[in-house]
Amino acid sequence: MKATLAHNNYRADPELQTREKRIICVRRIACGCAGCMARLRLPLPHRYEPHDTCERFRIFGRMNDWKLVELVLTEEGDEAREEIEQLGLQERTDEIASLIGEGEAIAIAAPGDKRGFYIADTTGTVRQ
User: Fold this and answer.
1) Distance CA 76, CA 88 (A)
2) Pick from 22, 32, 54, 94: most CB atoms within 10 A?
3) In terms of pTM, does the model score above 0.90?
4) Are 25 and 50 in contact (CB under 8 A)?
5) SS3 of 6-40
């Protein structure tokens, strides 16, 4: 994660992936100029090499070159993924709660039953 913090453009090129390694390409700023797009159409060995055909090369120089980063699963990664999933769940729950008003009905999926659901009438403002 630390190697990618200063970068905002990520590319998971299927041709870089192997059974043993997961590699992404990162660079600071996304660019869709003709020079950069032509570069991405080259064969893999030359696709991510530094080049000066980018329209923004005068501005960025080599600071916007692609870098290859190997993704490694760690225990920290598992904890981060869990935390992200919890945040996503919390955001969805907050969104649903904000849409429900007093006296409205809501449907809740029944646990373990793919076709069943519960209907509940709200009696007050939904809150946590």
Assistant:
1) 18
2) 54
3) no
4) no
5) CCCEEECCHHHCCCCCEEEEEECCCCCCHHHHHHH
